[in-house]
Queue: 3 jobs
Job 1
Amino acid sequence: MGFDEHYECVVVGGGPAGATTATILAQHGRKPLLLERSAFPRQHIGESLMPQTYWTFKRLGMLEKMQASDFPRKESVQFVPPSGKDSQPYYFTDRDPGEWSITWQVCRDTFDKMMLDNAREHGVTVREGVRVSKVVMDGSRAVGVEAVIDGQMKRIGADVVVDATGMAGLLAKSLKLREPEPDLKNASIYAYYKGARRDGGRNSGATIIIHTPDRKGWFWFIPLPDGMASIGIVAPPAYLFAGRGDDPTATLTEEIAKTPGIASRLDGAERLTEAFVTSDFSYRSSQLAGDGWVMVGDAFGFLDPVYSSGVFLALKSGEFAADAIHGALSAGDPSGERLGAWGADFTTGMHLMRQLVYAFYDPSFSFGKFAKAHPEHQDSIVRLLIGDVFNDEVGRVFETLGDWMTLPGAVPLKAE
Ligand SMILES: Cc1cc2nc3c(=O)[nH]c(=O)nc-3n(C[C@H](O)[C@H](O)[C@H](O)COP(=O)(O)OP(=O)(O)OC[C@H]3O[C@@H](n4cnc5c(N)ncnc54)[C@H](O)[C@@H]3O)c2cc1C
């Protein structure tokens, strides 16, 4: 089909999902090409990690780099109810004191660059500033990509194309596979602050989730290096934007003032940036792979920011996909069936997290009340919060938790 170059595998997008996929392919002895439209470091939301990222970091050779970083250590998460009363944090190390129970709060510009540099160190060919305009299809089989490189349109052939383009969703949008989460229509306004008050001791690196007093939305408080903090509100767009004017920074400031749990932490703090806005972020694709292509990370789906599961699922899907691609290429069979063989396991784990997300948004649910009523499920809740979702045991909590919430059906995953 007239290609300028050919690679076994082209990964489109150099965020955590793309970098993970490409690095593990290189560890398998493959020589992938990764194309990233931005020049790193670049700004990105999503700073709070889940402890279960530890195992992927270890596999990627990233663990020592994370341990040597100045990223704050995150040992717990705390949910503050609409009353504003402080609640008992969930300490990950109380359940398992291993070093894998402590994770990091990262600046994504620095972290994503560390991941991409690590991919390069493993032998991945990375080209930044290259925006892929389309995936080239031969019928329903992906056979390469088109991108402008050094001012010229180039066609690069590939046995497998990995869509790791995040919310941009190159393939999911062109193949019309993206489905919104029916009852999670939210938007977010966020900004960065310096000098916010932090709790002390083992709580100093905690993520704090604070409901607004009217329960219309919730805030995240994420401590970052150099006394910085990421602060954001999540709420339905109708609430955040209707009748407010068009200054999101003013809206964020107004909402902070109305929520004592966050206002008191920001008393005397300096806002370092204007507010950023993002919306329509809860969706999933109805297909994960097809002949010659596979999706990873946000390109496949994103649930919701509340449990900080995005980067973890991006890393995990990158791991699953890279192993499947290596197996498919070794067998000379890059069919959708082989490339997406991990889809059922992955979406089962993702669905556990999804149920916990719906519980959080259900007005009848509160972590405090549930813990009091069902102390026998505390362990499962902590396991979900650390990202321990790829096993059968923790799902049992939903036999009880199911009574506390309404759960719409999930998008079925089409056979490849
Ligand atoms: C409000 C909000 C808060 C969040 N908070 C958290 C959090 O605290 N913790 C957490 O874990 N997650 C959080 N997330 C989710 C997290 O940001 C994502 O899940 C994570 O970044 C997914 O990684 P990715 O590699 O799939 O996508 P991305 O990190 O988005 O990477 C995709 C890359 O693809 C590139 N790209 C796109 N299109 C093209 C193209 N055509 N050609 C070449 N390159 C392209 C982009 O430039 C980008 O670098 C949050 C999300 C939202 C919306």
Note: The first helix runs from residue 16 to 27.
Job 2
Amino acid sequence: MAEELPDPDSSPYWEGINIEELRYQQCNHCNISIFYPRSICPNCGKPDPIWQTSKGKGTIYACSVIHRAPPAYKEDTPYVVALVDLAEGFRMMSRIIDCDTNSVKVGQEVDVVYRKDNTGNRIPYFTLHNS
Ligand SMILES: [Zn+2]
């Protein structure tokens, strides 16, 4: 999400976004997919997860339409915030864009898209598959 600032653990993630690659981590030891980026596996505690690239295809796990937003996002309302389960087995929060906000439902397939925010940074969002 736009609010999350780059830090050492997540810089490969943001470098990926900048070239329109959705990166996530995978544990070397227990093989779980990890997101948001971190230096230690949350499942088994082993360090140094490896970076992988997602195909950017997922399914909506949960979603809600935002009508009242913080001032920075007020002009965007209404918009849809969703938890998306990516095919590779990790979950991320983002917006579903370019859609009728009332048509977004749990279980719909989505594809990642990249848009620049008003500071020129690319941000990953999702659109409804085949829409
Ligand atoms: Zn692990």
Note: The mean pLDDT is 92.
Job 3
Amino acid sequence: MPEHNTQAERLISHLRERVGGALNDAAVCVTGGAGFIGGHLCDALVSLGARVTIIDDLSNSDTRHIGTLIDRAPERVRFVQGSILDPKALDEAMDGASRVFHLAALGSVPKSVEQPERTWLVNATGTMRVLQAAQRAGAGRLIYSASSSAYGNNPALPKRETMAPEPESPYAAAKFAGESLCRSWAKCYGIDTISLRYFNIFGTRQAADSAYAAVIPAFIKRWVDGQAPTIFGDGEQTRDFTHVSNAVLANLLAGASDTALDGTVVNIGAGVRTSVNELASKIQSRLGIEGLNPEHAPERVGEVRDSVADISQARELIGYEPITNLEDGLATTVDWYKQALREEREGAA
Ligand SMILES: NC(=O)c1ccc[n+]([C@@H]2O[C@H](COP(=O)([O-])OP(=O)(O)OC[C@H]3O[C@@H](n4cnc5c(N)ncnc54)[C@H](O)[C@@H]3O)[C@@H](O)[C@H]2O)c1
């Protein structure tokens, strides 16, 4: 389902103001570009005039969104269906690319607890293969989607990049290994890299139907289906829920920057702490639902208690400043899902 046009246009004009023309006609490769954040990033890259090649094995996505991108700009969007573990597919995807946005990964903490080896292979070894391929292609810069899960349960708040990492799950460990690889490639092989440590990204088109779905689409889906959502633990755990436009902006700023980024790690969040209970009540009121209050289930293994970003380093290095706050981001996201889920139900009936 398309997002409301004027809203998407407003966002793009905002991004254009912030990023300028640096990506116009640039050849870029996006790993994981069929996924949630990658799809939004590709939208913006295409709107800013870049030539985009997406590599994705579709293990957690499909070609629906890529299809709309190709329809929009057939001469500037290319899709390579393949794994980041396959050097040949990577070479094909990165041919001529000046910048690589590396988002492909297995994204779920609970799944990583079930499948630690697969998680390591894709998220750590896969990142090394992406770096090697970027080097072979002569790409000048790689922008890595890292994760705030690297901080683990260290109680200090807000999270600052100078804090010692304490990964608590195979997912966090492998994503953190990816950052170290990116840094070491910047130091040893002359490819400029940056790791963007995202804090709970949400927005339209995030998977709502798997057992591992992120909390916002999972809550919305339950309520739209007339069921109470489940909160794991007491709901007083806090997160820095960050609208996807902010993650897109960070990628674009990093891609456009003319400063050496040198393997640096920066937090990408909204900088605001919200409990899961508060989040649930905001969604419930936006949906206009009375009753069906969330049910509580035991806390999940490997989950962190509290998290919020200090974003001053990203501000300083790449000029990052969030463009969408939680309220505005939630409003568009909730409305989009409500309509998309209803249309899906009507289509199935
Ligand atoms: N969503 C968040 O809140 C969040 C938070 C922190 C970090 N991140 C990171 O951001 C990135 C994007 O996350 P997302 O939420 O868009 O997830 P997503 O699952 O929607 O997107 C990831 C994409 O990678 C693809 N993929 C997986 N394994 C692959 C492989 N071996 N080869 C090629 N493609 C492969 C999937 O098919 C999918 O399209 C990931 O690196 C994730 O670790 C996300």
Note: The chain has one domain: 5-205+243-271+309-324.
